[in-house]
Each structure stands twice: as C-alpha cells, then as structure tokens.
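Progress note, sequence design subtask.
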C-alpha cells in the first residue's frame, strides 16, 4: 500500500540504489538456544519475529535448571503443544537445532571410531526430530558436522592449497589411517625418515655391508623422496593414481610381517633343536636303561652315566659356575648323577616350551599383521560411509515421521558446516557429504520402498539440505595464505558452486573476526555476510536466514537479529523520501530519526 508517498515493508518498492541488496525482513529470524526455549519463543514473538529456531545444548539427561542443560526431551507434550499453538496463532515459522555437541556422525571419539558412540549421536538426532515433528511440524533439524571431536582428524594443508595451519605443515602434516575392524586410528608423519638397505651395485639381489661390522648398510629417505621414487616406479608400470601414504603403510606392515616371520622361524628352529636334545637325553643317557644294561647294579650305572655326561661335556663343574651355586650341590650331583640328568631334562623342556610359545606367538602375529594390513584404509575411506549412513538413516526417520504425522511441510535433516579443523567444514567437503548422503538415502528408498529412482532422488533432496553458516566459513580466514580480497573471492567461488548444486536449504548468520565462533551480531565483525546473502538471493534461494546470538551482553541477544536486518538492508519504513534503518532506531536518541512506527 502506498499513500502520499508513505511506504512500508509490505510494499514491493525498492530501497536505495538499483540492484542494492534488500532482504525481506520476514525471511530473517533468530535462534533461541540459551535458556528455556518456550520462554524464548514467547519473547521473540513479542519482538515481532516471524521465524524462530528452537535450539538445545543439553545431551543425555536434561537439566532445565541450567541455561544450556535442556534437551528436546525436557519438554513434554503439553509444553510442545503450547509452543506449536503460540507459533501458529502468531504465524511464526519454527525450525530446530539439535545439540551442537551431540557427537560426531562418524562415531569418532578422539582416538578411534566407535559404533556405540555413533549410535549415541543418532539417538540425540532422533530426539530432535521427534520434537520438531510435534512442535515445529516440519522444517529444518540442524545437526553440526564435526561436533565435539570432529568427524575425523585431517590436516588443513591437505584440503585446499590456499590454506595452511602453520608454515611447516606441508612437511609435517600427518597422514591418517584407520583399522576397519577395531576403529583404531594411526598416523604417519610426513617428516618421518624412511630407512632402506643399500643395494650392492656389483651383486644384484644383495646389499652393501659395513666392512668393519658386517652389518647391512642403510640410507635415510624423506617422505617426499620416497613419494617421488614410488610415483616414478608405479608410473613405469602404468599406474598413475595412488595413495603414497597407503603404499608406505603397506610396506611398513610388510616389514613387520617379515620380522615376525623371521622371529617365528628362528625360535621354532631353536625349539626343535632343544626337542632333539631332550630326546637324546631321555634315550641315550637314560639312567633306567643303563641299570638294565649292567644287570641292576646302580653304582655301576651311575659310573657309566657320569662318564657319558662328561664325554658329552654336560656334567656339572662347580668351578666353572655351570648350573651350580655351591659345592654341596656339585657333590650331590657327583654322587647321584641321575638327579642332575633329570634337572637337565626339565630345564631343556622348559626352554623348549618357551621358545615354542614365542614361535607360535610370532606366527599368530604374522596373521594379525596380514589382517591389519587388509583392514587398514585411509581415514576418509572409512569415515565417509559412516557419515553417509548416519545422515541417510536420520533423513529416512524424518521422512517416516513426516508421513506418519501428516506434517504440513517437509521435515529435513540439515547438516551444518563447523570449524576448519573438522572434516565437512570446507565447502567442497560439505557438498560431498550432502550429495553422497542424498544418494545413499535415494538408494535405500529404492531398495526398501520399491520407489523409482527419480522419485527417491527428489525425496532425498528434500530431506537432506545443508545449513550453511557464513560465520563458521569465516574462520577459515585465519589459515588463508592470501589477502582479504582474495579470501572474499574464494568465498564467492565456493558459494557459487554450492548454490549451483542446490546444497543450501537453511542459513545461519553470525559474525566474527575470522578466528573463532564468537557469534557477534552481523556487521560487527568481518564475515562477508552481505555478499554471501546477495549471491543466495540472486540464485533464487527460498529458505530462511537465522541470526544466531551468543556474543552479546545480557539483555541484548536480540541485536543479533536487528544486526542482520541492518546488514541485509531490511527496511523499517520510509516517509517523504527518507528511510530509517533498524540500527537508527536502536542506537539513536530522541529526535534524531523519524518517529518509530
């Protein structure tokens, strides 16, 4: 409506220069996750918001007495219905944020991958889905990618050549692997030395030896030298695409296997020699047999046994310290050599059993090393299927609840990018997770529901849609090797690709200075919020912009929302050719701006 040049936000009239960003204020909402969400919803309704995200910080057993202790399950049916009706009556659209610290979707615990930990994370997601289905009646259920311990460890250097954690990261960054059976994570450091024997140029198949010690000589290689050598070697065989770290890890296991095989063979040989010696002692030196040979004369049999043992250099000599510790024992064995023979046999049998056990243990180790080598894969090869499975299962649960409860709008899982140190935060990783999870969900709908793939793909796209947080993306800035302008161009390029592939279904707005998630009000830091939103608007983005408070002083949480309204040039009103911004109202004194509407 327009009368006497009076204009307000309901009129479709441009504000400012042609083409200038101007976002409908009804698309801009706020997240309420600190304190009681019911009271937070009521407060935001009174402020005039039309979009509110209800968030939770608690996991496990909830504690509503603590500002960040509530969980979705802390609110029973009556309170959920109260919130639903309050939102419906005031035409407020709700979305839901699961606990940011619910745990990695991959099940990574900080040391290993745990199926139990992953299921615990999924239980938290299901709690949020149930709440969203009953209270918000659909919408986004935001889940952090990489909360707590991160989805899995990976370096900054390996993700994007424009970034590095520190100047020596390229030389020192570890390469991570995981045992698929145990979930245990292992790392190879790029600054490790690799020692290899030096081949003898004059004797093929043999190695150079130190002329003084006779020990085989070795040389140290850096990881880069090893990598170049292996790439050239495999290239000559027609192989171009390899994981050099995995090749090195494989060779490490091969060496461990060779050592175990050699040790098993060595101790088995010792044990077998001892077994032969035991047989000789029991048969050739048998005291009972000698007694029989001399017609039962015990003393004569003892004389023969003494002589045979002395000839074999096995009879004890106390002056040499062999076996004996005192003269009394020596005299006892001289008098009754059959006792010494029995002790000698027992000692040999004990040694035999020990060496045989070592040989068997080393043989088992050979099998274990072979199994470990077979099960050891690059960490992303193991973790990505775990993340895909978690998101696909969560999205299928959302789809089931949506149909079962007749929801008015799609209930969808919305993975959110998190910190640079965690996999999934780089836009390329973010896109990969979402696209692969959609494909996984679609395949399961085809297999489990008998759907056509085209229909399953459409449903998967509706039920796995990313929440992109521009504030989280901004703290990649601390690792960026270029200028601020270069960083903005990088953001532009990555956002273009995300919008092109229809990845983003929800947006979080907060600000910082590129170091950490301080949740300043939009416009108070250096996150490229305005340019980011401008690109989304031009791409036809239909979702909401949720401003997230957290870095404001008490009583000023709402400035996260009004800051977003101001940065995105959402107008308050205009009269007589003049217009007022939201910041003009909240930061001015009486008489300095047109009267508040």
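Output:
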């Amino acid at each position: 409506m327009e009368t006497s040049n009076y204009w307000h936000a309901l009129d479709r009239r441009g504000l400012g220069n042609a083409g200038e960003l101007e976002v409908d204020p009804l698309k801009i909402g706020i997240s309420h996750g600190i304190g009681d969400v019911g009271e937070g919803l009521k407060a935001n309704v009174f402020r005039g918001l039309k979009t509110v995200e209800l968030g939770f910080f608690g996991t496990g057993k909830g504690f509503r007495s603590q500002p960040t202790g509530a969980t979705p399950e802390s609110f029973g049916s009556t309170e959920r219905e109260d919130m639903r009706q309050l939102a419906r009556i005031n035409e407020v659209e709700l979305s839901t944020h699961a606990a940011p610290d619910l745990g990695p979707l991959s099940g990574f615990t900080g040391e290993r991958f745990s199926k139990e930990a992953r299921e615990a994370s999924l239980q938290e997601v299901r709690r949020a889905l149930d709440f969203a289905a009953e209270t918000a009646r659909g919408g986004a259920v935001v889940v952090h990618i990489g909360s707590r311990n991160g989805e899995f460890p990976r370096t900054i250097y390996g993700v994007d050549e424009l970034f590095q954690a520190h100047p020596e990261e390229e030389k020192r960054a570890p390469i991570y692997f995981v045992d698929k059976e145990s979930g245990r994570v292992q790392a190879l450091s790029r600054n490790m030395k690799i020692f290899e024997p030096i081949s003898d140029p004059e004797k093929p198949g043999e190695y150079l030896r130190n002329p003084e010690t006779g020990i085989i000589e070795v040389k140290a290689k850096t990881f880069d030298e090893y990598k170049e050598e292996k790439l050239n070697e495999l290239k000559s065989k027609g192989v171009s695409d390899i994981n050099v770290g995995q090749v090195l890890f494989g060779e490490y296991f091969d060496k461990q296997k060779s050592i175990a095989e050699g040790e098993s063979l060595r101790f088995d040989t010792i044990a077998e020699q001892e077994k032969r010696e035991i047989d000789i002692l029991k048969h050739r030196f048998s005291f009972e047999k000698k007694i029989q040979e001399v017609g039962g004369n015990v003393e004569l049999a003892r004389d023969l046994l003494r002589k045979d043992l002395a000839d074999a250099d096995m009879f004890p000599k106390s002056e040499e310290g062999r076996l004996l510790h005192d003269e009394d024992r020596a005299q006892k064995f001289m008098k009754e050599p059959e006792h010494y023979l029995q002790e000698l046999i027992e000692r040999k049998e004990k040694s035999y059993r020990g060496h045989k056990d070592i040989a068997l243990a080393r043989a088992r180790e050979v099998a274990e090393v072979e199994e470990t080598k077979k099960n050891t894969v690059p960490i992303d090869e193991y973790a990505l299927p775990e993340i895909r499975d978690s998101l696909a299962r969560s999205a299928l649960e959302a789809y089931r609840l949506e149909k079962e409860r007749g929801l008015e709008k799609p209930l969808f899982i919305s993975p959110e990018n998190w910190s640079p140190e965690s996999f999934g935060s780089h836009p390329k990783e973010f896109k990969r997770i979402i696209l692969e999870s959609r494909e996984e969900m679609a395949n399961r709908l085809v297999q489990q529901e008998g759907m056509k793939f085209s229909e399953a793909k459409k449903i998967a796209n509706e039920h796995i849609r990313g929440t992109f947080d521009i504030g989280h993306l901004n703290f990649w800035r601390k690792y960026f090797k270029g200028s601020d302008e270069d960083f903005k161009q990088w953001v532009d390029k990555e956002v273009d690709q995300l919008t092109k592939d229809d990845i983003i279904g929800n947006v979080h707005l907060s600000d910082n200075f590129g170091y950490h998630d301080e949740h300043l009000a939009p416009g108070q830091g250096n996150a490229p919020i305005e340019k980011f939103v401008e690109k989304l608007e031009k791409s036809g983005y239909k979702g909401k912009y949720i401003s997230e408070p957290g870095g404001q002083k008490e009583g000023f949480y709402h400035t996260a929302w009004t800051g977003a309204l101001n940065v995105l040039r959402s107008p308050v009103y205009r009269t007589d050719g003049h217009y007022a911004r939201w910041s003009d109202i909240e930061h001015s004194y009486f008489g300095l701006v047109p009267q508040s509407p």
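The two ends are 15 Å apart (CA to CA). Work on this subtask will continue into the next period as scheduled.
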